[in-house]
Amino acid sequence: MEETISLQEIFKIIKKRLVHIISITIVAAIIAGVISFYLLTPIYQASTQILVNQEQTTEQQTVQTQDIQANLQLINTYNVIIKSPAILSIVIDRLDLSLSPDQLSNKITVSSQDNSQVVNISVQDENAAIAVEIANTTAEVFEIEIQELMNVNNVNILSSAVLGEDPSPIKPNKMLNIAIGAVIGLMIGLGLAFLIEYMDTTIKTEQDVEDILGLPIIGLVSKIPDDEPLASTDKLSRSRRK
């Protein structure tokens, strides 16, 4: 026979274990905060933009639309070339980085919006200044090398990455981590509360007798105060003296 639990019983269990649930939630939030503020390494991001656009002469104005479509089709190819060893090896040499092309590639994200000739180069690093240098150097090297690799001259740097006075890391999101930790702690607290309640089969009140055993209560034994035996003994002693 399947056991069911009513909504009233659920609230009763939560109320009974409320202190434990709140305590676990707070502890989980504190742990998430300590990890976010003191253990996780901050990651900074710098971005630069390049424009893919073939310069047109007066005689070429009639085919401008076709050239734009050709540039858009080339962007996917450019996104791959930017992160290729042919480009990143030069960037590593210029900046004297102790990284392999694959390791540097993992720090770089290349993206572009649909039907846009603008390509974004984003770099994430533990050092904000190095992230800016890698982003700008990658764009500069690509602008030069693409002319030899594909025999085209349609790439220009639209905007360079700039190092702010007080850069803020993009990771970790400390407040979000604390909120996630609190939610996880709340779930753990609720789970433990219901688990403890399910495992606890002891009978503590008369209501438990009716609920668990299904038997009616026909009588109760009142609690005897601690000082009651002493009072009875004193009376008995006095009566014997008389």
Automatic annotation (TrEMBL):
It is a multi-pass membrane protein. Pfam families: GNVR, Wzz. Residues 3-94 form the Polysaccharide chain length determinant N-terminal domain. The chain crosses the membrane at residues 21-40, 175-196. Residues 144-195 form the Tyrosine-protein kinase G-rich domain. InterPro entries: Bact_polysacc_biosynth/exp, GNVR, LPS_length_determ_N. Its main location: membrane. PANTHER family: FERRIC ENTEROBACTIN TRANSPORT PROTEIN FEPE, TYROSINE-PROTEIN KINASE. This is Wzz/FepE/Etk N-terminal domain-containing protein.
